[in-house]
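Table S2 (continued). Query chain:
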Amino acid sequence: MPTTTTTTSDQSRRSSTGSTRRASVRRALPVLGFLAGALLWWPVGFLGVRPWPHLPLDVFAGDALFLGATAAAASVSLLVRSPWPRLLVVVLASGLGWLVDTPTGRYPHEQEVLAVLLGGAALVGILLGARGAKGPLAAATVLAVVAGLSPATWPRGLALALALALPFAVATWQRVAPTLLSLVRLVVTWLVFALLARALSYGWDLVRPGAGGVPVGQQARTVADAAWDFVRTQWWTHSQALASSSTRWFVTAAVLAVVIVVLRAGHGALRRRSSPLRRLTPGGRRVKPGGRRVTAGGRPPRYRSGRATHGRAPYASSWSSGGRVTSGGRRR
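Corresponding output:
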């Protein structure tokens, strides 16, 4: 009995320490997400497009501004789960970028158009990234959208690799088909948003802000018509070329998936080895989390005159449904 009590005390102490550690991690996650979102806003959207911390606040680069701000806001929305801190990061980052590169207004309505593009991109990105908190598959979908939309150079491929590796965080041998379907869906999502981004850039190339007498609405319709023509005529060619040029990121995704599977297997093995039902006392008896000894069949023993009955009638039983029990354990 002292051995069992000591083992139970050690288990309770370790359980309390683990609970305290998990609570500390849960409290730190929102702060870490806030910092990560603030640090990644500019690289995800504009790395390679402009030097840090500048934004493409130019009417000729309105497509890069809209796409980059949308991808950046979606990444912030994925990392920062609370609505108001999420909005605060996006608004502050966009406002600072606007202050660093305030448009000169050399063309009619230039500042208004760029402000609408930046603000609309922030709103669309927040809405796209908000569903990423639902689980690994939802987060992978947001990463696929970011990889398709972002005009940035380096993080775009990394986001695609992470998106294709995340489904293996919840994959099992019984869910092979759903995992494969999730991978196909993620690739299609990435290709669709990449096609839309390229179509917008194609249409924006026709913008002529210096042309006198052309209203903003007419130029917006010109951009939309050209973008739709690109989608209608070039969707297969563009998608095929994009998939062929992203082979290295597919390989990176495969490596990350293997790492995730190995880590999950190792974590599961450690949990099985440290399970309380498999811990043995020095006497060789298994101990349940509450400290009660169990028999080989997994049931707690019941005692009669100091000996376990293993489910038989106890020694001093009272009236039963079939009569009174004698001292020998037989009914009258």
